[in-house]
Amino acid sequence: MDRPLVVIVDADDSLRHTLKGPLAGRGFDVAEAVDGDGALRAVRARRPHLLIVGSPRDGSGDGIEIVRRVRACDRAVPIVLLAGESSEARAIDALRAGVNDYLKHPVSGDQLLQSVDRCLGDRRPAPTSSKGLFAVDALVDGDRMVGDSPPMRAIARQIQRLAPTDSNVLITGETGTGKELVAELLHCNSRRRAGPLVCINSAAIPESLLESELFGFDRGAFTGAQAAYDGKLRLAHGGTLFFDEIGDMSLSAQAKILRVVEAKEVHRLGGTRRVALDVRIVAATNHDLEALVAQERFRRDLYFRLNVASVHLPPLRERTQDVPGLLQHCLGPLNRRLGTRITGFAPDALECLLRHAWPGNVRELKNLVEAVALSAPSGVITRADLPAAFRRRADEGVEAGTHERDRLLSALVSTNWNKSRAAQELHWARMTVYRKMAKYHITRGGKIPSSSADALTPPVSDC
User: Fold this and answer.
1) Stated pTM of the model
2) Which has the minimum average pLDDT: 19-33, 222-236, 402-416?
3) Are 63 and 55 in contact (CB under 8 A)?
4) Which domains does the chain have, with CATH numbers?
């Protein structure tokens, strides 16, 4: 399969060479151009996966004019703009011209690759080393962690630290935040990855079948037991045992599981001996287990046994800067599964999606993208392609913008109008700060013109 192509447009030979190194090392093919004409030739002839635009040789300054020319020819190709100087007005101009990300010189290789990953999502090449945290082939459906926000980077470091150990792990977070995926990553990056990962939905097994399903039984243990059954706990021997929704487990079931966690052995129904159990235990819940312990609805001793190490997944509304990357990540598998050819999201659609609170978190986002893909099977998704009920809720949420505006102003003032630090404080991408500043007409010395969807949408013409 051909490697993704990145085109670098910059007049500085040494800068192009510097940027080319990290990209080639990551597995990209890299082409170069020195001006706008060269960029357009590359877009027309080679259809690159991404464009990086710096300072061109033809005197068009900061590259925004090149972005406008490319956007008139191709509205889908992601564009990263490298700016020699950064200002609110320039960032807004770049956004309106159609850039996907905006970086200020000097830019490190890590910063560049993070920007490229955000823009390409599912289309970026797989890591060449199997030692990387997420370079694991065994993940279900090729799923992986997506997100470059500070909370997600911290979670990635946690998983990297915890995966090689055999310590019990408790994963907490709202429904749809990806708790099962974290359990898979812990298993697939552990020494037990050659063994099984057995998932048990703690709320789905009826109380009457709990012992036979989990602990197994010998032949003749009860009426209908025609053959021996090892049970789900024993099936996880040598691997990882994942208790999903552990907070919904009954107190009597908790007492039985506690013995397993403590002794690491099982006693089958009708059996005469205990069988050793070599497993690592991971549990997940969307409940506050400490509150359940205080209410005597969850065993304190089991809670402390499970909570040796913990990973908390934040809701999507607290890491909205990851939404664009998640949206793009969903498109690749959907296009392959549904036979669609969706290339991305128009600025008006993205603005609407970023305003949503996502109560169902990543699961809700994936379901929404699939619903849109079924009704808009090709091209760029616009706001009009989103479900009417979703657009209505987004419009109703505009009234809540006053609170968001106050948060943004507070962050800007507290950081002395340093947009990068304000973005970190708000857990937003820097471009989100610029978008919101334009949306709420915020500037240190006056007002910025409205950044309506029309203003953000570049013109269309034939190449």
Assistant:
1) 0.58
2) 222-236
3) yes
4) 5-123 (3.40.50.2300), 150-313 (3.40.50.300), 319-463 (1.10.8.60)
